[in-house]
Structure formats: structure tokens, C-alpha cells
Write a structure and sequence with these properties.
By secondary structure, this protein is mainly β. The chain contains 1 helix and 16 strands.
Length: 269
């Protein structure tokens, strides 16, 4: 019995902690309302809501009702919408009211995945025309990364060839004959290697007659039936970069290596 209280205490801490983490995850949609809605909102109020949706989405805010005391420039009561401390809009009044600024039926789209709402009221909300405040629905709206401008950091487009927008993200792919590099953004020409066992054929470097991309290591295996030999005939347009040294040209960075394999050996020579 002496160990029962510590065991129960540890179990409670574990359950409470898991519940807190689950609530901290951004939702795809939700509802935000002024205090006491649909009853009139209190006077002398200053309240803030920090809304967010998962990364890779924009937050879209749509008002289903807004009734805040109207005034010029929303001087007395107001609902301010901010993104990263930048004011996107300031609302007050009622639909079709002469004073104030009402959002109407137009949704407000955040530049990113979050918005901040700030409701401020003065020290009065007089009867019989008490104002009810607001009710709004927010939801995650997918960002089409593929149609966005190229990053300003000079890193180039998100995808060097084909970009496919996915829910909350994007993916890159390549045209036929190209391969996607490990950065999952850049396409390079495929080596097109493999085993060539036809009686005759043509081999060319990737992208020929254009220069080959950097960082490739291609291997081509030519195989013929026993009793035949392989003959390679290079065209006059053969050109691979070489470096001049005191001992003559050197294939320091780019080269084509031809290796002979025979059944009498256990490897290449």
C-alpha cells in the first residue's frame, strides 16, 4: 500500500501531458466567436485569438456574422486581423451600415498558415442597440507551391522540370530520360546504361550532342556471344574535357574508361 500513491500520481501526469500535446496540434478548420456570442459582447474588452492551420496551407477566414459598434475608422470598437503583426483588415459595423467597415461575404486569405484576431471595445455597449460581436469560420486552404514565384534566395525554381501540387505540399518529377537527384528537385539526364547484347548498335553520352551534366558516373556493358569480338568506332565529334599538364593532357575530371573482361580472368583489366 505504501507504493500506491506515487504510482497513481505518475499515471495522472502521463495522461495529462498526452492530452496537452494533442490539443497543441493545428486543426484543419475551426470556429472563433466573440465572448458571449450570440449575446452582446462585454464592454471594456481586449481579447486576442491566435489561429493556425498546418504548415503548407494558407488560413482562410470567413465571417458568418459581424455586428460591432460602427464608427469612423472603427475608432470605438473594432476587430483587427493581423499576420505577423501586420494589419490586414480592421472591421466594425453591420452589413450595409453607413459607418464602419464590414467584411461582407468575402473570405479573407492569410499569406501564411496563421492569423491573429484582436477584439477591442470601449467602456460602453448601450441598450437597446447592443451589438452581438462576431462569429467566423476558418479553414486550411491548400497552397499551390508550383504556381508560386521562384524563391528570392536565388536557389532557382522548386522543380527543375515538372512540379505537382499535392495536399499541403508538392513533389517534383522528370521527363522521360531524366532522373530525379537526391535533392528531390533537380532532374539530370539518365545514363541510359545497361547491357548491350545486340550484334551492333550506337552508344552516346547522356544528352549528346549537348555537353553531359556534371556528377554522372555511367556504366555501359557490351556483351557478345563467344567467338565474336567487340569493335568500338568513335566518331569525329568525340570530345571529353582534358587538363593540360607538364606531362601532356590529363583526364583529371572527366574521362571515358574502356575495360576488357574475359572469361579467363576473374575481373576487369
Amino acid at each position: 500500500m505504501d507504493w500506491t500513491p506515487p504510482f497513481i500520481w505518475l499515471l495522472c501526469v502521463s495522461v495529462c501531458e498526452c492530452w496537452r500535446l494533442a490539443r497543441s496540434l493545428p486543426a484543419l478548420h475551426g470556429v472563433v466567436q466573440s465572448p458571449q456570442f450570440p449575446q452582446p459582447y462585454p464592454a471594456a474588452l481586449s481579447q486576442q485569438w491566435d489561429l493556425s492551420v498546418p504548415e503548407g496551407y494558407q488560413l482562410q477566414l470567413s465571417f458568418t456574422h459581424l455586428d460591432i459598434e460602427p464608427s469612423a475608422d472603427c475608432y470605438y470598437d473594432s476587430l483587427t486581423v493581423l499576420y505577423d503583426k501586420k494589419v490586414l483588415a480592421k472591421f466594425c459595423g453591420q452589413e450595409n451600415s453607413a459607418d464602419g467597415h464590414h467584411p461582407g461575404n468575402r473570405p479573407l486569405l492569410s499569406p501564411g498558415n496563421r492569423l491573429t484576431l484582436v477584439l477591442q471595445t470601449d467602456d460602453t455597449n448601450p441598450e437597446p442597440h447592443q451589438h452581438l460581436g462576431f462569429s467566423a469560420h476558418y479553414q486550411a486552404k491548400d497552397i499551390d507551391e508550383c504556381s508560386a514565384p521562384d524563391p528570392e534566395d536565388g536557389s532557382g525554381p522548386l522543380c527543375s522540370q515538372l512540379c505537382h501540387n499535392t495536399l499541403g505540399s508538392y513533389m517534383c518529377s522528370c521527363r522521360h530520360g531524366y532522373e530525379l537527384r537526391p535533392d528531390q528537385r533537380t532532374c539530370v539526364l539518365s545514363c541510359g546504361g545497361g547491357i548491350f547484347d545486340e550484334p551492333e548498335g550506337i552508344l552516346s553520352s547522356p544528352g549528346y550532342p549537348d555537353p553531359s551534366p556534371h556528377g554522372l558516373a555511367c556504366q555501359y556493358v557490351i556483351s557478345v556471344e563467344p567467338g565474336f569480338i567487340v569493335t568500338l568506332n568513335f566518331t569525329d565529334s568525340f570530345h571529353i574535357e582534358h587538363i593540360g599538364t607538364q606531362n601532356g593532357p590529363s583526364c583529371l575530371y572527366h574521362w571515358l574508361q574502356v575495360t576488357l573482361y574475359t572469361a579467363l580472368t576473374t575481373g576487369y583489366r
